[in-house]
Specification:
Helix content is 48%, strand content 8%. By secondary structure, the chain is an alpha+beta fold. It has a four-stranded mixed beta sheet with strand order 1-4-3-2. It is globular. The termini are far apart.
Length: 259
C-alpha cells in the first residue's frame, strides 16, 4: 500500500487493516505498518537480508545497550543488535526510520521493527556508522525505548500525518515520552547531547512536547494547536536556547524568529 493510496483514505473512513475502527482511531500515523502488512509487502527473504547482516560494535553502542535492561524498563524481553549503516543502506530496502547524523557520517537509524520481526522477533535493530557519536546513539536508543515502552510510535512513519496537518514531523516523532527517555539516557550515561537534542530535552523539561496519545488520536486541531504553542515557546525562549546550544555539535547559528 503506497503513500499515494494512503492519501486517499479519509480520517473517518474504515481502517484498511479490517479492525472496523475509523482510520483516525486505528492506523492513522502508523501507515507504514499497513504497508508492511499488505500482501507480501515484506517477505521473509527481505527481512532475512537485514537480520543476517554482521553485528558491529561502534563507539559506545554495545556498552550502552548492554547496560539497559529493556524488559525491566519497557516490559518487552528483546535485545538490541547493531549493523553497519552502509551495509544496511546498500540493501536498498524501502522504508525509513529516524535518521540522525547521516549527513555528517556519524549517523544512526532505528530500523522499522516490521522489517526485522519476521526473521528475528527477539531483537530490535539499529544501523550505525563507524564514527557514530554518543548523542546520536542516545537519540536512537530513546526511540527504541519510546517505541517499546512509551508512545509506541515508530519513527519514520509519521510523514503522511505531518503532511496532512501541516505539523513538523519532528513535533510528532519526538513526543513527551521520547523526551523523557532522552533525558533519562543523557543522565544515566553522561552524554552531552547535540544542539537539536538539547532543544528537545529543553522542551520536555518545560512540558512543551506533544504526548504520544495525542499523536495517535490524530486530532488535527489538538496537534496543530500544540505544535503552534511549541513554536511560540521556542520563539519566546530564543535567547535562552541559543545560550544553551551555541557551543554544541550541530549548532548552525541563532534560531530565527517566525515572521
Amino acid at each position: 500500500m503506497t503513500d499515494k493510496s494512503m492519501a486517499k483514505i479519509g480520517r473517518n473512513d474504515p481502517c484498511p487493516c479490517g479492525s472496523g475502527k475509523k482510520f483516525k482511531k486505528c492506523h492513522m500515523g502508523r501507515e507504514s505498518e499497513l504497508a508492511l502488512a499488505s500482501l507480501d509487502a515484506f517477505s521473509d527473504e527481505m527481512s532475512g537480508r537485514i537480520t543476517r547482516l554482521p553485528e558491529v560494535d561502534y563507539g559506545r553502542s554495545r556498552e550502552i545497550a548492554d547496560a539497559l535492561d529493556l524488559q525491566a524498563l519497557t516490559g518487552h524481553k528483546v535485545g538490541i543488535r547493531f549493523v553497519d549503516l552502509k551495509a544496511y543502506s546498500d540493501l536498498n530496502i524501502f522504508g525509513g526510520g529516524s535518521r540522525k547524523g547521516l549527513e555528517s557520517g556519524e549517523g544512526g537509524l532505528f530500523i522499522n521493527i516490521h522489517k526485522t520481526r519476521k526473521t528475528d522477533p527477539d531483537h530490535v535493530y539499529l544501523a550505525i556508522s563507524p564514527d557514530v557519536n554518543p548523542s546520536t546513539l542516545i537519540h536512537q536508543m530513546a526511540h527504541v525505548l519510546d517505541y517499546l515502552g512509551g508512545s509506541n510510535l515508530m519513527p519514520g512513519t509519521l510523514g503522511p500525518l505531518s503532511h496532512e496537518l501541516g505539523v513538523p514531523v519532528d513535533h510528532l516523532e519526538h513526543t513527551e515520552e521520547f523526551g523523557g527517555w532522552l533525558v533519562y539516557l543523557r543522565e544515566r550515561f553522561g552524554v552531552q547531547l547535540d544542539a537539536d537534542d538539547t532543544i528537545i530535552a529543553f522542551l520536555h523539561e518545560h512540558g512543551m512536547l506533544i504526548r504520544g496519545g495525542d499523536v495517535k488520536g490524530g486530532n488535527g486541531f489538538v496537534l496543530k494547536s500544540k505544535s503552534d504553542n511549541m513554536l511560540k515557546f521556542l520563539s519566546e525562549k530564543n535567547a535562552e536556547i541559543d545560550g544553551l546550544i551555541r557551543d554544541l555539535p550541530g549548532y548552525i547559528g541563532p534560531r530565527k524568529r517566525p515572521d
